[in-house]
Amino acid sequence: ARAPHRSMMKAMGLTDKDINAPFVGIASTHNEVTPCNAGIGPLAEEAKKGVFAAKGTPFVFGTITVSDAISMNTVGMKGSLVSREVIADSIETVVFAERFDGLIAIAGCDKSLPGSMMAIARLNVPSIFVYGGSILPGSYKGENIQIQDVFEAVGKHQKGDIDDDELYQIESRACPGPGSCGGMFTANTMSSVGEALGLSLPGSASEAAVDQRKSASSRAAGEAVLHLLRENIKPSDILTKKAFENAVTVVTSMGGSTNSALHLPAIAQEMGVDLTLDDIHEISMRTPHLADMKPAGKFLMYDLDKVGGVPLVMKRLLNLGLIHGDCMTVTGKTVAENLSNIPDNEEENTVVVKTDSPISKTGGLVVLHGNLAPDGAVLKVAGHNYGKKWAGPARVFNQEEECMEALKKHSVKSGDFVVIRYEGPKGGPGMREMLSVTSAIVGQGLGDKIFLMTDGRFSGASHGPMIGHVGPEAAIGGPIAAVEDGDLIEIDLEKFELNIKISNEEMKSRLNNIVLPKPPYTSGVLGKYIKLVQPASKGAFTG
What we know:
543 residues
């Protein structure tokens, strides 16, 4: 009955021995639309070698990615978070349809990492996640620079602090080759999550894309997935609630991206694990900030790699009793077993500080509630001291473009509380990242002089006083839709509240009189997304 199937496989050069071996799908996100993924093709070939060496049969297949940095500040950015769902769906579809026994997913740009992990959770076949690696730093005037510096240079240019030539020089030198953005932005945050969850081989998250260790670890992943198959270790054995708690702990200790508050709950949902914004907040409150990473700190993933990578951070957190050492990982060993031989004599280094002298006693993310955010909102506090309270008059913009035009005209002033709405999962759609806006604010010298809040989200490269994921979003009648220019908005970081200073009656009256805009898309992938997407507080997933 299987003769026709074997005949098709023999057409691809497979022997009877190959056909009788375990089949491993290798999902490659290699493409030529972003440097983050431009170097992944050779890694897929290395993974194939590893599978063959371990007596399995590999099958490479492709899936999409988009470049957030290139689509930033355009309508194309609406497709970014949507791509996460398409990636997860496409990997699931191929592995399900081809009946593969195992999976290796290789990804680099922001949404291809969580999209791959979501597919791994759904499929629940023995799987490993491989990170494509981060970019090396560029250099300008003897200083390391990277893509964040280019975005912020735009703001400096708008202000008149640098001329056309200097902006051009920065633009031309910031990105020297393939790899994902170098700071603790979303890609490196999620690669760290891969290690913390136990889905990636220890130490692989910090390897640079052009480092030969990346080739070796990709090959090792091919061998390791066959070990998982033989031991019948599945994602459901690895992706437990305690594993997700470990991941949140690592992210908040490293000043990771606010996007982790979208991606981790979404991956958890796919595995049937309940991970809430309140869980993230509570874990952050008991986790010290240990790694001084950009955008709020000084260092890149390249620097972290030189002092021990993510395993060093995890070892220190384990010694503090803050992560669960008994969680299973793709090595077939527990977290504690993986970390047992990691050297760390607590010597001072400037990248990961001593546990008795943390950068701050609590982690880098907090969750706010209040009459503007009944479902929650996310604030990144890593590297910042906002004080206990902050208040300012609202300056309201309906979507990102309006705010960017105001910044170009220098009409956003010190003390303003900038509100950008109708950028949520449904309203945007797709929760565009506001990196161009936040970078212009920082570049114009307003980074510590205004607050910004949105029902959209922020790039991992964004830093400064910014509140994202405000829910419910404006497009479904959330309170953020009721804000008017001049309203006083207050943040209370003792109570972790975000409130507008109007009465409940006034809020109700305003919301009753709002005419909500029609969905901006009714067909195609964005139309489907608007119909299916869940709130940001649940990870904005479409399952």
